[in-house]
Amino acid sequence: MQPIDRVLGLKIWQGAPRAAPLGGGITNVNFRVTDGRGTCVVRVGDDIPVHQIMRFNELAASRAAFVAGVSPQVLHHEPGILVIDFVEGRTLSAADLRDGALDPALDLVIRTHRDIPRHLRGPSLTFWVFQVIRDYALTLTDGDSRHLDALPALLAQAARLEQAVGPIQMVFGHNDLLPANFIQGDRMWLVDWDYAGWGSPLFDLGGLAANAGLSQAQETVMLQRYFGTVDRDLMRRYAAMKAAAALREAMWSMVSEIHSELDFDYPAYTAANLDTFRAAYDAFEQT
Questions:
Q1: Could you read off the pLDDT of 86-145 as tens digits, one per residue?
Q2: What is the pLDDT of residue 279?
Q3: Contact 173, 196 (CB under 8 A)
Q4: Angle (deg, nearest 10), helices 201-212 and 102-119
Q5: Residue of 136, 148, 246, 249 with fewest CB within 10 Å of its CB?
Q6: Residue 280: enclosing H or E segment and its boundaries?
Q7: 3-state DSSP call for residue 241?
């Protein structure tokens, strides 16, 4: 059954639903649906074990994020389907985050880490980026990826980064802070909880900085807002996690090259994120 047929066949609609694809998704297929009650977003996607995506975890995080005031409300769910309230607004770009939207975006990250655990129900996953990287390497090996020759060096660099991160403070993170996961309307929202889970706050902060291309000065301000004080040890651990976040994004794309059926230029995305990783790793080496 095609995704659009699954969407239109849901039993929740009042009157005849009208559905249109929503662009931008690189993990799920998304639709904007309007029926007699209003407009919502329907996300179509089953578990994706190669990316450690489990929909029970996404559902729990999405519900808690709404109660915490971070994300729109979940209206309905069933296997492979998540229906959430539609909010008017536009998805942000990296330039938006660099040019004025960083403060409200960071507010949502802080609320995610601080408030979502108060409302989270049931079991939830952990997200340790270095385990994700190791698992991706095995998945790439099993799939005879075109990137096999690069894996030994990347894994050696990841091991060095993991050692540098050291012990962590554990928070509940979003773990996928792409600019497009922030929506700006009357207020700002954070959406898409596929990778949510317990881990280090440095991963969200490093991922936000890497994905938005923040300047060093912006990174320092971000860390000061989050931690209060910033010393050399924190900067080195942060630099290590920022590089790991970029490597994870690159290896996510490598895995998607051989496993995803979505119409997206994964090879180009891999190349762009490898460039981001190399720059971040060089910066780490200089801290």
A1: 999 999 999 999 999 999 999 999 999 999 999 999 999 999 999 999 999 999 999 999
A2: 94
A3: yes
A4: 150
A5: 148
A6: helix 266-285
A7: helix
Handedness of CA 136, 157, 130, 214 (dihedral sign): negative
The tokens of 208 are what? 């936000």
| Distance between CA atoms of residues 42 and 25, nearest Å | 12
| Cβ atoms < 10 Å from Cβ of 231 | 8
Tokens 């706050």 sit at which residue? Answer: 201
How much is the mean pLDDT over the chain? 95
> Which is it for strands 39-44 and 182-184: parallel, antiparallel or unpaired?
unpaired
What was the pLDDT predicted at 262? 84
Residues of the chain with pLDDT under 70: 24-26
Q: Which helix (H) or strand (E) holds 258?
A: helix 232-259
- SS3 at position 163: helix
Half-sphere exposure of residue 247: CA atoms within 13 angstroms, side-chain side: 32
- Which pTM value belongs to this model? 0.93
Q: Are 19 and 7 in contact (CB under 8 A)?
A: yes
Q: Give the containing element (helix H, strand E) for 42.
A: strand 39-44
What pLDDT was estimated at residue 165? Answer: 98
Residue 173: both structure tokens together: 């993170």
Report the sign of the C-alpha dihedral through residues 119, 224, 162, 143, in that order.
positive
Pick from 286, 221, 214, 287: nearest CA to 246: 214
